[in-house]
UniProtKB/TrEMBL annotation:
Residues 544-889 form the PEP-utilising enzyme C-terminal domain. Mg(2+) binds at residues 766, 790. This is Pyruvate, phosphate dikinase. Its cofactor is Mg(2+). The active site is at residues 463, 852. It comes from Treponema saccharophilum DSM 2985. Its EC number is 2.7.9.1. The keyword Transferase applies. One of its GO terms (molecular function) is pyruvate, phosphate dikinase activity.
Amino acid sequence: MAAKYVYFFGNGDADGDESMRAELGGKGANLAQMAKAPLSLPVPPGFTITTDVCQEFYKLNRNYPEGLSAQVDEYLAKLEAAMGKKLGDENDPLLVSVRSGAAISMPGMMDTILNLGLNDKAVVGLAKKTNNERFAWDAYRRFIQMYGDVAMGVDHDKFEAIIDEVKAKAGVKEDTELTTENLKEIVEKYKAMYKAEKGEDFPQDAKKQMWGAIGAVFGSWMNPRAIKYRKLNNIKEGALKGTAVSVMAMVFGNKGETSGTGVCFSRDPSTGENVFMGEYLMNAQGEDVVAGIRTPQKLSQLEQTNKAIYDQLCEIRDRLEKHYHDMQDMEFTVEEGKLFMLQCRNGKRTGAAAVKMAVDMVAEGLITKEQALLRVEPEQLNQLLLPQLDKDAVKKAIEIASGLNASPGAGCGQIVFTADEAEAWAKDGKKVLLVRKETSPDDIAGMAVAQGILTSTGGRTSHAAVVARGMGTPCVCGCADVAFKDENTIVVKGKEYKKGDFLTIDGATGRVFEGQVAVKPAAISGDLETFLGWADEVRNASVRTTASGKTVKGFNVLANGDTPQNAKDAFRFGAMGIGLCRTEHMFFDEPKLTAFQKMIVSDTTEQRKENLAKILPYQQKDFYEIIKTMEGRPVTIRLLDPPLNEFIQAESDGAAAALATKLGMDKAALVAKVAALDEHNPMLGHRGCRLAITYPEIYEMQVEAIARATAQLDKEGVKHDVRIMIPNVVTYKEVEQIRAQAEAVIAAVNKDCGTSLAFQIGSMVEFPRTALSADKVASVADFFSFGSNDLTQTTFGFSRDDYGKFINSYLDQRVLEDDPFATLDADGPGALMEIAEAKGRGVKADLHLGICGEHGGDPASIALCYKIGLNYVSCSPFRVPLARLAGAQAVIKASK
Ligand code: PEP
Ligand code: MG
């Protein structure tokens, strides 16, 4: 026997229900559920062809599986019996709509055809039967247009041109003003145009029409719009079986002034407020509401004009919310005073609305806290924290290019091409957008005052991206279409933009727009803290067993922060500490930058020590403030890890001269220094703890600054929990040696200050060798922090700074499913982390493990970190709320 491919709904009954969402699609499953008890809502009868058929359709090269045709016949007969009408009947035709619907709603992405079943004869029958000739001809012209466009690929504009022509001739503006005669003329012209385009008559056989529409809907599963939507929403190809097709008896909202159609939401989808809202149009079909041809009326108006229907809708709203325990987006039609429900689904909502609804629904007893936590997409929280582009403004804006969405938020300003210009212009009160090929530490002051940052090269972990995220500044990087013509001009796809012109970027999507697109400021809802408090409870209470058999309790969220301001942001957003303080980032601004540069260009150890002594007080002050801000929460300070050449750059002769003057040295000597520091591959060069193996005095100064800052706080009675972290470790011997030097310095400070401070000293795990020898490293380290940026770089062999050139080809061709620098790869770095967990905890059972690469702020990566058994994730301050939620979701999902 063939599989069951078709399910019935309507007339108070259905042979499917909401548990069959995967097979019936969201729309089909909800129609079935609404039709049957206990909801028993007025749903026009129909049947749904399952998503299995869609899957087969593509497997069979766009053919249907055996047995489908007979089942459709059987269910069509059932539908005809329910309606007391027959499809294609010349006197009283049954008309149907043919609708798409996948298990995950993809609003507007796939096709729908209405008024199907009309032909030259049936339209006359319909006119007689309904005693409404205008209605019948309007339905027929709508059907020819929709079917011709959607199922047969006739250009929509060709139909519109005909309507416009007839309207102009008749001297009317609105479709509703067209007379029956006008509509008849349109039908004739449509059919003639159709024949000219397709070389055959418009199909008159209603069954043939139905199969054409079913094929079109299944075909629309793979239209470019739907594919793009799935990509944007991270729905993997193959995760869904496809779309279902629902064939439903038509009810008509365009049968005169007692008919109408509308869309409503059980709560406000943009604010989350518990108010019933929506829009409707009398004497119209659904497409009129959506297409914006006529301006719909507010649902509240219906209460005045048709209280009975409004009350019935209110009652349905309550019943559906109680049933689905979620905000519903509903479509309805009123046919000659009788209400029908055509669709309901969980409504899309903004981040602010999602949080408010989740919190309200817990208070109302509709859902549990755990359900509430699963209701909000972690990424949606960003919307609550950063300025956003105004949606309506974006629709009208001119998009000129796109790059990597490196740091979310909207940034709009006058373009400038150097950090100095950014600073100078900002001082004059201008809003600037900093456009650079790439950024360097020298640019930091300019970056800090910019509304946004746009770079033509660099990936998500490039300097610009990391710093921008840390500062909460919107950033689009790796935007290859931006070319620098001269110091006053960039060229984007052939069009020139001068310094001072306005551009707008959307860091959440990577899109770049011409001119000023309106930006909306951030608004933090009071419910957010309640909501995130629940997330913290869930993570704190979590217990799991790792693959290596160790029990791990709790899952914490820390922040990456390099400045006292970062620490304040981190604290404000609820971070339980600082998981990574990149000390090299503390030298971005003056006078620290000059002191640091002088240290780098030192010729002798003595000179270097002299310059280091000048830096020490700056470091001590910054450490003091960060540690103080975090009020006893862990602060993990990483010893220096810069590619030194990043700090000493002399791109031109003029720049070399300026830098030499600033550092009080001879230009030729500086140029020689720059050449000496130059590396073919700085990312794999003289950086991290390799610097301390060559120049131990650098880390010794830093440890002294840390110890002195802590001693000062200790004496002031301020709580502190400071941890020292060594970067770029490849062998336990580096840790052993640096640790011994650090402990000697700490002992000296203790003696000097009369304190008895002790610090945990841990190792970063950023290279395969470190992970593979984690047992040895653990024997000399107090904790591990996975530097997943470098671990990804070295596991994949993809340069962090250059992969932007090819990653999109990999993603477009699905050679890789995800950008590995954005989402931690389970087979590569993830597998190495598992090895490190097992080996490390094999030596020290309670070894503390965390992650501080950019992945610490990515929901899918956070879930993998939880599974591996990390104690915490650390991410940029602005992603802390997201990580608090994503961590809780990982806990809840793992327990299911
Ligand atoms: C890392 O490599 O993941 C890391 C945190 O260090 P950085 O990004 O500073 O190299
Ligand atoms: Mg690193």
